[in-house]
Specification:
5 domains, Methane Monooxygenase Hydroxylase, Chain G, domain 1, about 0% strand, mainly alpha, two-stranded parallel ribbon, 2 strands
Length: about 950
């Protein structure tokens, strides 16, 4: 060891410790390794994990002390006997450790190089500044030495006096400032009274700044505390001023408040407070409105009401005060929402003004804080829309559900809906406000209105059905004298349809049209007013002029009908026309001759006279009910299906009553005429099962409050005892039957006209119900004519007498006769007598052409079938007898064509085919029997029997009888 040290000393080498002590200033002599050198060190391929292991293998003593002598430490570690190979291995190990450490240091230097360069630049700059400071100090000392030698005592005295003067001037200025600060309190109070919050805050902040300058004065420290209290007081008054904008928004007032909050740097806090104030304003507003009406109804200001919750308070509203309270409630809520809308509009306009380009074309660059504040305010206001509207909905819902409206009158309930609704837009008025306010569909409000409406409407409908039963049971089926131009739109109940009609718009679009005024409700009422001040016009000021003055407008026509038409001058002008449109009264094109006119029957003129509508008071009542139902449905579409279903029940019950009164007979099945179609029978069965209560006797049945399963049903109506249907003189109540049946057809026509409007309001999922109602019920109204008028036709003609006369006729004659039998004349006289009675009835009630045709068709069909039945009663018949049958029938047809205009004659082929079948051969008759199932077994059997012996033998008879039995088997 000593030898190595001595060798190092002789060669002039220094130990590492001595080298460290001789290092010069790092700023002057430290060389920063170049990037290339550092990069070369880093680019040496290596294994990071292996390098870290090498570094970890270095002894801790190398990292603990900067004054550590590495050389001595390593030399002392050498063994006494040196081995070259061991030394080389140890040297290689140290070199590896040195290389790993060097590379690690190089990596760290590269990572920290930017910071090192920056710090080195700062140190260099600091060194330059220190050099400059040394120069300044040197110059100052030099100047002081010159002044010390050049200035006299007098000069220094002047300088001292000048210094005192400057100090006194500053003191005087400070005293004036202090005096002004002392008087600031009075000015702040005045500005607060004037609601000049920005000015007050600005003044207060300036005073605080000035007070901080003179805080070394004891009087100022107390003033500073007072100013802080004043500033807090201003913030409290500012919060109160902010709350006032929730009910009555004023641009100037709100501008001052916002500017004041901006000066305080609390714009975001103001928005948070504003939403709290709006929520509180909604609650306080509705509570005070409802409390006022509750106390008014109670007659005193009992404190117990003030302690109630809003929900409990709403239950104390009486029915009399419900509507005015609801109106005031909506008005108050509107003011709150309008204030919020104006608040948003103010911020939008303010943001546009701040972002607008300046006059010189440059745009003001807003700070990041200002941009953040604007973004926060905008999002807060947008988020508050749905929150505010949700609060409004909940308050309105609580009020609406707080009272049972089922006992309200119809007009009052419609008035309630109109306050909540906008009839023009088919949106609730409050809901329309909500949709324009925040885009909400107002599900909460809709559900509350739907519940109240369904509850009310079901109760209302049950009462109306019971009233309809009472009307029907007391109806004498007399005409209700309405004007010829009567339209359901002339009724008060359909006024809403007149308001929404547009000739250039389809019905489906008329109910979705927005108001003619442009802009939203908030824009329309931006300058004042309230949409809830426009109350529903339930009662029309216009008079309802639908009734004729003197019964009928066609009195003159009635007089002229019974004149003798011997000349053209005696014929009414309208009867000279080719046709008269009963529905529209269109002017015809051609006229008819005098001869043709004389050939017509006097009853025909009356049957086609005028265009008087046939309806009863009950029909008019049902139409009014339909109008009320549609009015409610038009206001509130969510209950459209319930309303339309109830409307269908009104029609069902009317149809069932007319059928029960005038069309129910047990003789239909035996006629084989198919008087009641399968569709009509299905409809009648459905109505009886779903609507008619067959358990409760009508005379003991009260209001529909029986068992749960029967409360939706109505007892079957009974015909009034004043209506006589068994008198032959009145054709068995033909006038009443016509009025009842045709009023039902008229009602069906009105439902057909309303179908587009009902379809437009019916939910898509429920439209199949409406289509089925029209296709299976409304369209069957006219089918009731057949069974109702068949009863008259069956009783008006004495068909039994004709059968008795035909039984006395001998059909097995040997000679062809040229004169028809007496029964034909008797039958024709019966028809003439029927025509006269028909004319007498037409004096009371106009008989439409369709009714006349149905009556004549029934009579002719029954007569023809009676003729066939009479022919089938003949026990013997010859060829000449068959010819006589044809002669009788042809005589009947010839004279019948003069009595009626029906062409072709009904069932003409039915008689002729039966007569001609007598001449058929055996094979042809067998095929004929199988093809003609419209004849009865008796008629077919008689046909075979009368042909026996003439051209059919007994064997053929048995074959034909077997064919008859086979044909008759399916009927059984």
């Amino acid at each position: 060891m000593q030898k190595i040290k001595s060798l190092m000393s002789r060669q002039g080498l220094k130990s590492p410790q001595e080298s460290v002590t001789e290092v010069k200033s790092p700023v002057e002599n430290f060389r920063i390794p170049s990037k290339e050198e550092l990069r070369e060190l880093r680019e040496i391929p290596s294994d990071p994990q292996a390098e870290q292991e090498i570094i970890n293998s270095i002894e801790e003593i190398y990292f603990n002390n900067d004054s550590f002598d590495v050389v001595n430490y390593e030399l002392e570690k050498l063994p006494s006997v040196l081995n070259l190979q061991d030394l080389e291995e140890y040297r290689d190990k140290l070199e590896q450790q040195q290389a790993a450490v060097s590379k690690k240091v190089a990596d760290l230097i590269l990572e920290k190089q930017a910071a090192y360069v920056k710090e080195l630049e700062r140190v260099t700059s600091l060194q330059a500044n220190l050099q400059l400071a040394a120069v300044i100090c040197t110059n100052a000392r030099r100047q002081l030495n010159i002044a010390k030698e050049g200035f006299t005592q007098a000069s220094l005295g002047l300088l001292a006096n000048q210094r005192k003067r400057q100090l006194l001037i500053g003191l005087l200025k400070s005293l004036r400032t202090i005096k002004t600060l002392q008087r600031t309190d009075v000015r702040l109070s005045e500005m607060l009274e004037e609601e000049d919050y920005p000015g007050a805050i600005q003044l207060c902040l300036e005073c605080q700044k000035a007070a901080s300058t003179f805080k070394h004065y004891s009087c100022i420290s107390e003033l500073n505390s007072k100013l802080q209290d004043t500033l807090e007081q201003i913030e409290e008054q500012l919060d109160v001023a902010l709350s006032k904008t929730c009910k009555h928004f004023e641009v100037s007032h709100y501008t001052k408040v916002q500017l004041a909050y901006r000066l305080l740097g609390k714009t975001q806090t103001a928005m948070d407070q504003l939403h709290m104030h709006f929520t509180q304003a909604i609650h306080n507003t509705v509570f005070q409105v409802v409390l006022g009406y509750v106390e008014l109804c109670a007659g005193n200001s009992d404190t117990k009401f003030q302690k109630l919750q809003y929900k409990d308070l709403c239950t104390h509203i009486t029915p009399d005060s419900y509507i005015p309270c609801l109106s005031d409630l909506c008005k108050a809520l509107w003011e709150v929402m309008l204030s919020y809308y104006r608040t948003m509009s103010w911020h939008d306009e303010h943001d546009r003004e701040e972002s607008a380009p300046a006059a010189d074309g440059r745009t003001e660059i807003s700070t990041d804080d200002a941009n953040f504040n604007r973004s926060y305010v905008k999002k807060k206001l947008e988020h508050g829309l749905s929150r505010i509207w949700q609060d409004v909905q909940l308050k309105a819902k609580t009020y609406l559900l707080g009272t049972d409206l089922s006992s309200f009158k119809y007009d009052d309930f419609i008035f309630v809906l109109d306050i909540i609704s906008s009839v023009i837009c088919l949106q609730t008025r409050l809901m329309q406000v909500g949709e324009e306010f925040c885009g909400s569909k107002s599900e909460v409000l809709q559900e509350s209105i739907r519940k109240q409406s369904v509850n009310y409407f079901k109760s209302y409908h049950r009462i109306r059905l019971e009233e309809l039963r009472m009307f029907l049971e007391n109806e004498t089926w007399e005409l209700c004298p309405v004007k010829s131009n009567f339209s359901i739109l002339q009724l008060h109940e359909f006024k809403f349809m007149r308001q929404s009609r547009s000739p250039s718009m389809s019905p489906s679009k008329q109910y979705t049209t927005t108001p003619a005024t442009t802009g939203s409700l908030f824009d329309q009422y931006q300058n004042g007013g309230n949409p809830f001040e426009h109350q529903a016009d339930i009662k029309d000021d216009e008079s309802e002029d639908v009734l004729a003055a003197n019964g009928y407008e066609s009195d003159e026509l009635e007089k002229s009908v019974y004149q003798d038409y011997d000349s053209d001058s005696d014929v009414p002008e309208e009867l000279k026309r080719d046709y008269v449109d009963e529905q529209t009264g269109d002017i015809p094109v051609k006229s008819i001759s005098k001869e043709t006119l004389k050939g017509r029957k006097r009853s025909d003129y009356y049957l086609n006279k005028g265009n008087t509508l046939i309806l009863t008071n009950t029909t008019l009542n049902v139409i009014r009910l339909v109008g009320k139902y549609m009015q409610m449905m038009n206001i509130l579409k969510p209950i459209a299906f319930d309303v339309i279903h109830c409307m269908s029940q009104l029609f069902d019950y009317y149809l069932y009553a007319v059928y029960t009164f005038f069309g129910r007979e047990d003789m239909y099945e035996s006629t084989g005429l198919g008087l009641i179609s399968s569709r009509l029978r299905t409809t009648l069965n459905r109505i009886q099962e779903s609507l008619i209560d067959l358990e409760a006797p009508p005379e003991t049945a009260g209001p529909l409050t029986a068992t749960e399963e029967r409360k939706e049903k109505v007892p079957s109506p009974h015909l009034s005892h004043l209506v006589v249907l068994n008198s032959a003189e009145t054709l068995y109540g033909l006038a009443e039957r016509v009025v009842a049946t045709e009023s039902l057809v008229f009602l069906a026509d009105q439902f057909e006209c309303l179908q587009p409007h009902l379809d437009a309001m019916m939910p898509s999922a429920k439209k199949p119900f409406l289509q089925q109602f029209y296709s299976q019920t409304v369209s069957t109204a006219s089918e009731l004519r057949k069974p109702i008028y068949w009863i008259v036709a069956a009783k008006a003609i004495d068909y039994e007498q004709m059968l008795h006369l035909m039984a006395n006729v001998k059909w097995d004659i040997k000679e062809i006769m040229s004169q028809h039998n007496v029964y034909i004349d008797t039958l024709l006289k019966e028809f003439e007598q029927f025509n006269k009675k028909l004319s007498e009835v037409s004096k009371r009630v106009r008989i439409p052409l369709q009714v006349s045709n149905v009556l004549w068709e029934h009579c002719i069909r029954l007569a023809n079938r009676t003729i066939v039945e009479g022919y089938a009663n003949a026990k013997k018949c010859s060829n000449e007898g068959r010819a006589l049958m044809q002669l009788d029938f042809q005589q009947f047809l010839m004279k019948l064509e003069k009595l009626t205009d029906i062409r072709p004659i009904p069932d003409k082929e039915f008689v002729e085919t039966y007569i001609k079948a007598y001449y058929l051969t055996e094979n042809d008759m067998e095929r004929w029997i199988k093809e003609h199932r419209e004849y009865s077994t008796k008629q077919l059997t008689n046909l075979v029997n009368v042909c026996l012996g003439s051209h059919i033998n007994k064997k053929a008879r048995q074959k034909l009888m077997a064919a008859i039995d086979e044909t008759d088997r399916p009927k059984r």
